[in-house]
Design a protein that fits this description.
alpha+beta; Catalase HpII,  Chain A, domain 1; two-stranded antiparallel ribbon; 13 helices
Length: about 425
């Protein structure tokens, strides 16, 4: 057998490997071709499409992509699960991510949403503690319900999200039938300088569908990629997936007139008080060609806004702006914005684009964290429970008991006391089910 003379030469102890550039390049390429997994929302699927507004939004925002009803703004969308690793099942009980990148004429605008209308916490300073609670144990690398419920027992503001998570909305097998809620509060500003607090809401035009806990558990073993497969297969069949975008708006000067804090991600904006306005339609019509280059390298940043959209003082949003940018730098490197999936598609005036990220605010006095002024963690949770049908209530209670029954008694009693504060009947049924 002939040896490649450029690679091998004889030595005292046999053949010696010399500098084979092709070999080194191939092996080092293999070692470096993967990037760090996202801390949250690590398993995802993507699709391309476009967005078109129903009518000009000039009364509320000067954002260019929300004005022209004839323009199709290109978009890339990434759906994901929040807590599981890349190898986890799509159908497990979890929050789902629904992130949209608008490639506008003024720069990229990223809208990050989740599948539940509220989040666990209102202040980003608690986010690391939440993530540590929902991730596997650092001792065993096994997911332990006790760790999660201990955190819930120490954080009453999570109860509203728990009610949504343990309903059947926490289990689904199709991203195409999932709602998306922008739980962060942004600000829209028009050309006259008038400002509106705004929250976003995506609704699937194919209808909202979820599955039971039992079906979710079956699919986790039978087809753990059920949601990804459903999205890919539908696009291969040339089926359009469409979502309607609506917004809720509160005039900036009226933000303190409500019995809830509009900047609190654990709170809904009740539609009977703050109605939704339809804005436009998102159409997904093209699957990805290179998963790694498009889905894995996609960076969605809450800092990506355009003129006409500003940040609010939402404490979860403020932390997310910092954390998401730092996370992508760590995961993808400092030049991640140059990856094709993250590049803008139009020439951008960098001076204007940069100014859009900066809101000049005069601050006097001492800035410090303080207690939430509307720290009622249970009223809206009770309203959400009572808005369910009797069958939905029974499903919620059964799902909670199934997950909570083997947790320490002290933790159970503390959590149940929160459920009692939300609704007496709700708490009483769980109490009986756990046989206190």
């Amino acid at each position: 057998m002939n040896q490649d003379k450029s690679s091998l030469t004889a030595g005292k102890n046999g053949p010696v490997l010399l500098q084979d550039i092709r070999l080194i390049e191939k092996l080092t390429g293999l070692v470096r071709e993967r990037i760090p997994e996202r801390i949250v929302f690590s398993k995802g699927s993507g699709a391309h499409g476009y967005f078109r507004v129903y009518m000009p939004m000039s009364d509320f925002t000067k954002a260019a992509f929300l004005q022209n009803t004839d323009r199709k703004t290109p978009v890339f969308v990434r759906f994901s699960t929040m807590t599981g690793s890349k190898g986890s099942a799509d159908t497990l009980r979890d929050i789902r991510g629904f992130d949209v990148k608008f490639y506008t004429t003024e720069g990229n605008c990223d809208l990050l949403s989740i599948s539940l209308p509220v989040f666990f916490i209102r202040d980003a300073i608690g986010f690391p503690d939440l993530i540590h609670a929902i991730k596997p144990s650092p001792h065993t690398n096994i997911t332990e319900p006790g760790r999660f419920w201990k955190y819930i027992s120490e954080t009453p503001e999570t109860i509203h999200a728990i009610i949504w998570l343990f309903s059947d909305r926490g289990t689904l097998k199709s991203y195409r039938h999932m709602e998306g809620f922008g739980i962060n509060t942004y600000v829209w500003v028009n050309s006259s300088g008038q400002r509106q607090l705004v929250r976003y809401h995506w609704k699937p035009m194919q209808g909202v569908k979820s599955i039971s806990r039992q079906e979710a558990e079956f699919l986790a073993g039978f087809d753990p990629d059920a949601a990804a497969r459903d999205l890919c297969d539908s696009l291969e069949r040339d089926e359009l997936t469409e979502f309607e975008l609506s917004v809720q708006m509160i005039p900036y000067e009226k933000m303190n007139r409500y019995d809830f804090n509009p900047l609190d991600a654990t709170k809904l904006w009740p539609e009977k008080i703050v109605p939704q306005m339809k804005v436009g339609k998102l159409t997904l019509n093209k699957s990805t060609e290179n998963y790694f280059e498009e889905v894995e390298k996609a960076a969605f940043l809450q800092a990506n806004i355009v003129p006409g959209i500003e940040f609010s003082f939402d404490l979860l949003l403020q932390g997310g702006i910092i954390a998401s940018l730092d996370a992508e730098r760590h995961r993808l490197g400092t030049d991640f914005a140059q990856f094709p999936i993250n590049q803008t598609k139009y020439p951008i005036n960098l001076e204007i684009s940069h100014q859009s990220y900066t809101i000049p605010i005069d601050v006097e006095g001492k800035i410090e964290r303080c207690q939430e002024s509307h720290a009622d963690d249970f009223s809206q949770a009770g309203d959400s429970y009572r808005s369910m049908t009797p069958r939905e209530q029974d499903t919620l209670i059964n799902n909670i008991m199934d997950n909570l029954m083997f947790v320490d008694d002290k933790i159970q009693k503390k959590v149940v006391s929160y459920f009692m504060n939300a609704d007496d009947e709700f708490g009483a049924k769980i109490t009986r089910g756990l046989d206190f």
